[in-house]
Structures are given as C-alpha cells and as structure tokens.
Amino acid sequence: MLFTSTVFLLVFLPIAVAGYWLINRFHYNTYSLWWLLAVSVIFYGWIDWRYVPLLSVSVLINFLVGKALQKDPRKWLLVLGIIFNLAWLWYFKYNNFFLESLNQLANTDWSLPSFLFPLGISFYTFQQITYIMDSWRQKIKESRFWHYSLYVAFFPQVIAGPIVHHGDMMKQFDDLKRHHFLRSNFGLGLFLFALGLMKKVLLADPLGDVVDVGYQNPEQLDFVTSWMISAMYSLQLYFDFSGYTEMAVGIGYMLNIKLPFNFKSPYTSQSFTEFWRRWHITLSNFLRDYVYFPLGGSRVSYLRNLTNVMIVFLLSGVWHGVGWTFIIWGALHGLMVCLERIFQEPLAKVAGWIKWVFTLLMLNFFWVYFRAPDFQVAHTVLGKMLGISGNSQSDEFFNNTTNNEGYLWLWENSRIYSLTDKISELASNTQNLIWFPLVGIIFWISWLAFSDTPEITSKFRCGVCNTISIVLMFTLCFCMLYYFPQASSEATKFLYSRF
C-alpha cells in the first residue's frame, strides 16, 4: 500500500486519522497511541505480511539492549547491539552482493537462497542504532516497549524516514496537549501532504518514465539527451524523496506529531558541503553525530579529518544501495568535500554563481552512478555526456531532430507525452482558452515544487488562499491518478523506499 494508492488515500489514511482523533475526543490518550501502533502494523504488513515478524524481532532485540544500557551503560553491550543491527542489515540487504563480488574475484559459483528484502530496513535499522547509542550515553532514562514499537513502526516514516530520535518522539507521545485537535496543524498537514503528493504524481513519476527509457537504451543517447536524462533524474529523485518526506511530515501534522524535514532547497547549494546540509538532512545528521564525531570529527589532525570525511561518505554510499556504483558515488562526494576543505581559501574568492553552476553540473554527473544499474551503463551514459564515447546515432537521427521525430523514442511511452496529447485535445475543444489558466498553474506548481518547504511551513496560515491551493493540488493529483492508473501501482514506489 503506497502513499499514492487509492486504497491509502481514500480508505486507510482517513480511517487512521479519524480513528486517532475520535479516540482522543473521549480522552483515551493511551488508547490513541495503541491505535497508531495498530494501523502502523497494518500499513507495514499490507505491503508484505512477512515484513512484520522481521521488524518485530529487530524491535524486540533493540529494545532489550537499550533497556539494559539504560541501567548499566557497558560498552561491550553497545558494541554487541551495533553489531547485531549491522549484521541484520547485511544479512537481508548485502549478502547476495557480497557473494557475487566474491564469486567474480575467486572465480567461484557460491550461492545462497534468495532473501526477502524488507522495505525501509536501512531507515529503521539506523533509527534503532540511535536509540541504543542514546541509551548508552544516558540520554534516554527509560522506555516502554509499546511506545518504542510505535517510535520504530510509525507508518508515515517507517518506509523511507525521516530518521528520528527516540527522545524527540517520546516527548510528543507523552505530551497531553498534542492529543487536542488543532485546526492549524491539521490544515498545514493537508497542505504538506498535498504538496508531496503533487511532487510525486505530477512531477517525479512522469520524469521517471523518460529517465527509465534513457537508461534502458544508453547506446541510443547523444550529448544532448544524456545530459537531459541526467538532469531529469536529478529532478525526479528530488521530487520523489522530498515529496515522500513532505507527505510523511504532513501526516504527522494531521496527528499533531512533528517530524523533521529532510530537504532545504538542496539544488541552490554552492558546494558539496552545503549540499549535504540541505539534502537528506536526517541521514547527514546521523552520520555526523554517530560516525563523524565518534571518529574524532575535526578535532584530529588534518589528514585524519579528511580520512574521517571519506569514511562517512563511503558509508553513505553503502547505506544508499547495493552495488559498486553506490560506493563510487559516495567516494566521489567524499572526494569533493575533501577538496573543498583543502582549497577552502581560494574557493572563497570565487563568485557564488560560478560555484553554484559547477556544483549543479557535478551533482548531475555523479547521479549517473546512483541511477545506473551497473558500471557498463554508467560509463556509457557518462561517455555520452562528455562527448568521448561517440554518438551511436546516424546522421538521419540528427536530421530528424529538427521535426521532433529523432527524440520521439525517448518520450512516446511517457506520461509527459500522453499528457501533452490530452492537453492539446482539450485546448482544441476550448478554442485554446485552456492555455491561460494552464500557464498560470504550471508557474504555480513550479514555484511550490522548488520552494523551501520549511520556510513555507513557518509562514503557513489557514485561510481561503491555502484552502484553494490544497483543493487544487488534490484535484490535479486525482486527475493524474485517474488518467494514469499506473501512478498508484507498485511500479511507482518511492525511490528511497528501495534503500
């Protein structure tokens, strides 16, 4: 059951939210949290019931380790807890990759039975590491099992974050004021949810159609189309993941529970260092607080500090996905951050717009490793982008680009192409009057999509304009889901849920 599925939008979410507030209305605050835990288990089990026992085992073991550390913070027990979590993640996520790599190196043919890959395992594993680490540091004095279970399994963020701290959630679960309905929070929640849904359905998925075709046929790309699909993937990934986060945060606000934002206009960054302060913020904070600082942070020697940076980004690459392409992606980002530290003084003299353009181009370049299924595809696309691998297209292809036939293969199976046809048909039926409001809607969507969501949130007020915005966003999304039913299918899972 995806956030974009009609079952979730029209059945599950209304029942979950209405049930929570109905129970709170009768002042059964404890039971309202039990309700959230029950619907969270149903949500996770709806995707695949086999996920539930795996999550339950992980939750139980981490809870017991955390309780023991709260009473007696022994380092060996902390290490044992971290090893369990990493081994759990390795077993379900990296086993096959490790064996394939070993078979290639040793020319062997070892194999293991295929494993179930639980959605969200990377997120909830790291989240539980924060729990046992904070228990060892005595930041958590006590915990209750069912509260802890809700903290891990909370349905808005169990699949793809944001990664939250136990203490932050417990304060909200125990705060009786948060069990009183607030119209302002509910309105903001609807706005954020609609904004995230719009980013996913109207922007990310249609862009993904074109990106998929490009990466399935990399040999057909040329210099222009290779850069085009790279830029489109950069946008797809941002709209997809930020859209999920905003939907999760929006559901939280509907329930008077505040979840952290993960993005702050990352593509306005003028350096990779700044980018990682704006992109996937909760993961960056986790790696900073639980990896970089324990390694010594910036309090160690210059060379050791650069080594710590590389370790953090290599770990980020490994966390994001299974494959050497993700490791290379992480290493490249780490290298760029290290170079920015080495050349900090001369870079300070470079104009901001030059640094922004350079950062944006390099991000697009590096995303190829993130998206490509293997090195062969990645290097084919990168070669096209650099213009060094030769163009596989014939002269006839380039001649055809003048009448838009040459690039047709890239667009014809996409929702963008179909949507353009529907809009053109509607325009002809309305004597082109549709173009006036349509242009306004396009500019409005673009402004919302690239706006700083935390800033919008801080300025949000319930009123006529925002009510119209919410209704319009939901209307556009449901129209898209109606005309393109595949938008709510398993094929359009949120990209980060696969990590």
How would you portray this structure in words?
Residues 393-406 have low confidence and may be disordered. The chain is mainly alpha-helical. Helix content is 71%, strand content 0%. It has 3 domains: 6-177, no CATH class; 182-263 and 393-499, no CATH class; 285-389, no CATH class. Helix 3 (51-71) packs parallel to helix 5, helix 4 runs antiparallel to helix 5 and helix 8 runs antiparallel to helix 9 (223-254).
> What string, H for helix and E for strand, traces the elements in order?
HHHHHHHHHHHHHHHHHHHHHH
Largest sheet: none
Cα gyration radius (Å): 24 Å
What is the total domain count?
3
Instruction: Flag low-confidence runs.
Output: 393-406
Helix tally equals 22
- What integer is the average pLDDT? 86
Q: What key attributes describe this structure?
A:
mainly alpha; 499 residues; 3 domains
Quick structural overview:
This protein is mostly helical. It is built from 22 helices and no strands.
Topology:
Layout: H1 6-25, H2 29-47, H3 51-71, H4 75-106, H5 121-136, H6 145-153, H7 166-174, H8 183-216, H9 223-254, H10 272-278, H11 281-292, H12 302-320, H13 324-342, H14 344-348, H15 352-371, H16 375-386, H17 395-400, H18 408-411, H19 415-429, H20 435-450, H21 453-459, H22 464-483
Helix pairs in contact: 1-2, 2-6, 3-4, 3-5, 3-6, 4-5, 8-9, 8-22, 9-15, 9-16, 11-12, 12-13, 13-15, 15-16
